[in-house]
Design brief:
Layout lengths: L1 H14 L11 E4 L5 E5 L2 H27 L3 H5 L4 H10 L1 H12 L2 H20 L14 H15 L2 H9 L14 E7 L9 E10 L7 E7 L4 E6 L8 E3 L3 E6 L6 E6 L7 E4 L2 E4 L1 E11 L2 E11 L4 E5 L2 E7 L7 H10 L3 H8 L8 E6 L4 E5 L16 E3 L17 E3 L5 E4 L18 H4 L9 H10 L7 H8 L9 H9 L11 H8 L12 H15 L3 H5 L7 H19 L6 H4 E5 L2 E4 L10 E5 L5 E7 L1 E8 L2 E8 L16 H5 L4 E2 L4 H7 L2 E3 L3
Length: 688
């Protein structure tokens, strides 16, 4: 019955759609690693093929992203989806998309969206047992755009403010709350030993889940030829390359959200602005929560104000001004970026201004490299402390528009011949003499100025280098050392400030940590000892790791002693000794594979891991998709590797077939030539 009902609804949908796709016009060729190469005459056809191939490999995460965008994730998976559902309604994503969809997106891109959702709905019709929430179907083009808007708004950190308010806390969003991060490196021919131009694509994300990477290649006769990676629900490649140019993304942490404490009357029906009382307009988020086999309706009140939406808790009413909820053009911008044939066309695509945040590192076959720290920077008035909660009783601290695209931080072909970003400030992107002038901070209030340990380390690795070979570039990218200075090192020494003569039973572990060479290679015996100790210390302090290391808090000797003692006891209980190689403790696990993996948090090639019941750690994220792209006389060449494989389905042989490559810092050649792809493909077929 469900399949019949869905088929009827799909018929109604395609009658009003932009184009009816014939799947027989689309070819999906799976290479030996299962990566889909999708060929069609039109961009719409390859979008259909991409959606189909991705659904074959990971339909669950595609659904979860679209369910979140439809405020139905809680109804599908339970309480873990509830905050996402509320967030979408609080930020006003539905209204934003409804208002701008018809006028802001081009007709040719709407055809791409239409084809993409046709494929998802067709897949759902043929695989009803995989559908998470039947009432969410059919998916629409607007749902896909809402998915993009939801993700980019979440990346801004806005949801963390709401979480704080929900929990009756109101504090500034600090660096410890930030996403994991990414790296990217661009090298001009003048800096490379072989005269080629290079780009290193190196996002850091979770290995699994809605924001894990999926590798794909789409090629149409209309000019699309993109090879790279995307998230579930993406209609095109997010980062990667074509024959002319390549690009990578890293997160930036500019201040794009402000919180205002409103001055309200006792009944919370009005709020005062410059002596005038304005109505505090009620609004409601209505969501459903799955509990057991039933779904319960939940309604949460919030308000609309001149600053933005507002929430109340026991302390007051707090409004949030969010810079990331003003455009729906990100999806089309990625589409235009991937179709660009040169730097000028690429910059025109960027001027679409659909990205509310994200750094962009770029390289092309004409030997241009570029770095743009893109964001919708609010124009803030001087004289207010935007690092703290603001008084919400005056228009004087309202935002006054946004910084024009032309004034955003951009680096183009620096004389040094290289650019990098490791989630650090745009003020540090190349050699010192070519970096941007710090006066830009006066123009852009809220510009990120913090560095990361990875950026400090990149500065050390690039310092005094001459011509770089590809091996040199890989050595820099895969480095697993902490820098000689930085907040982790400073925090480590603060965390070991103890008189061991008074605490002799932990002198052995203290000596091991103090003599550590700050490397996290697979054979190092102190790296994971440090990570476990740091985890123990921050638990005792009631902090998280990043919060401690970015602060200047000095633990007491008793706190240090307790963390060292707990760590020592853990090691002796689980391993029988203190000196255990990192690779024996930190494991890369999926399915039937259990491999040693190096790296720890905040080294250039990081691994983030979670403690297991057996005392070891399972790697969960960090380096997740890696791509090396080179432009030379022979054209474009590329290598890539995924942390696991191309499929999220345990029965697939591509569920974990790249893991050995990944842990051994090896790559596979990226295929670009259609004839070779078809000749060597593991499987060639049409979607349904």
């Amino acid at each position: 019955m469900f399949r019949f009902i869905l088929a009827v609804s799909l018929l109604a949908f395609t009658v009003h759609g932009y184009c009816q796709i014939n799947p027989q016009n689309i070819t999906i060729a799976r290479d030996l690693y299962g990566v889909p190469h999708i060929f069609g005459k039109t961009d719409a056809e390859v979008a259909y093929g991409l959606a189909w191939a991705h659904a074959e490999d990971d339909f669950r995460n595609i659904q979860e992203n679209l369910l979140a965008a439809k405020s139905m994730l809680g109804a599908a998976i339970g309480k873990d989806g509830l905050l996402f559902d509320f967030f979408v309604q609080y930020v006003g994503i539905d209204d934003l998309v409804e208002e701008h969809y018809d006028k802001d997106l081009s007709e040719d891109f709407k055809k791409v969206l239409s084809a993409y959702v046709q494929a998802l709905n067709r897949y759902a019709e043929l695989h009803p047992e995989e559908v998470l929430y039947k009432k969410a179907l059919p998916f629409t083009e607007k749902d896909v755009i809402k998915g993009y808007c939801t993700a980019l708004n979440l990346f801004s950190g806005a949801a963390l403010y709401l979480k704080d308010i929900f929990q009756n806390e109101i504090k500034r969003f600090e660096e410890n709350d930030l996403p994991t991060g990414s790296n990217a490196i661009a090298i001009k021919s003048s800096k490379s030993a072989d005269g080629k131009t290079y780009l290193v694509v190196n996002p850091h994300n979770s290995y699994e889940g809605r924001y894990s990477w999926y590798e794909a290649h789409t090629k149409s006769e209309e000019g699309t030829d993109m090879n790279g990676a995307l998230f579930a629900g993406g209609v095109t490649v997010f980062l990667g390359f074509n024959e002319n140019l390549s690009w990578a993304h890293t997160f930036n942490y500019h201040d794009l959200v402000d919180v205002y404490e409103l001055e309200t009357n006792k009944a919370r029906t009005k709020y005062k602005i410059d002596g005038e009382w304005l109505p505090l307009k009620k609004d409601f988020a209505k969501v459903k929560l799955k509990i057991g086999g039933i779904r319960i309706g939940i309604k949460r009140k919030f308000y609309q104000t001149i600053y933005g939406p507002a929430l109340a808790n026991k302390y007051g009413v707090y409004a949030t001004a969010i810079a990331t909820n003003r455009s729906i053009k990100a999806a089309e911008q990625w589409y235009r970026m991937g179709r660009a044939k040169n730097y000028d066309q690429y910059m025109e695509a960027l001027k679409t201004d659909g990205f509310p945040l994200l750094n962009i590192i770029y390289a092309d076959k004409e030997d241009n490299i570029m770095y743009l720290s893109q964001a919708h920077y609010p124009v803030r008035k001087p004289g207010f402390n935007y690092d703290h909660t603001l008084k919400g009783n005056t228009k004087a601290n309202l935002w006054d528009g946004f910084i024009p695209f032309e004034l955003r931080p951009l680096q183009y072909n620096p004389e040094c011949g290289y650019l990098f970003n490791a989630n650090n400030s745009p003020l540090n992107a190349t050699c010192d003499e070519n970096d941007l002038d710090k006066s830009i901070c006066k123009t852009i209030i809220g510009l990120q100025t913090i560095e990361t340990n990875r950026s400090y380390r990149f500065n050390e690795l690039f310092e005094n280098t001459d011509k770089l070979t590809l091996e040199d570039i890989k050595r820099i990218k895969y480095d697993v050392h902490y820098p000689s200075s930085g907040y982790v090192i400073e925090g480590m020494y603060r965390a070991l400030k103890i008189d061991t003569s008074a605490f002799k039973d932990i002198a052995d572990i203290w000596n091991l940590l103090n003599s550590w060479n700050k490397s996290a290679d697979v054979n190092n015996t102190s790296a994971m000892l440090f990570i476990h100790y740091a985890d123990q210390l921050v638990k005792i302090l009631g902090m998280d790791t990043r919060e401690y290391f970015t602060a200047t808090y000095q633990p007491t000797e008793r706190q240090i002693y307790a963390a060292l003692k707990n760590t020592k006891e853990h090691y002796l209980k689980n391993f029988g000794k203190l000196e255990v190689p990192l690779g024996e403790i930190q494991r890369h696990i999926r399915g039937d594979k259990d491999l040693p993996i190096d790296g720890i948090t905040e080294v250039p090639a990081p691994t983030h891991s979670k403690l297991m019941k057996n005392g070891k750690y399972k790697a969960t994220g960090g380096d997740s998709f890696i791509q090396f792209v080179a432009y030379g006389p022979e054209g474009v060449t590329a290598e890539s590797v995924h942390a696991y494989g191309s499929s999220a389905r345990p029965h697939s042989k591509h569920y974990n077939d790249q893991m050995e490559l990944f842990v051994n810092k090896k790559t596979k050649r990226v295929l670009t030539d259609k004839e070779e792809i078809l000749k060597t493909a593991e499987k060639i077929y049409h979607p349904q």
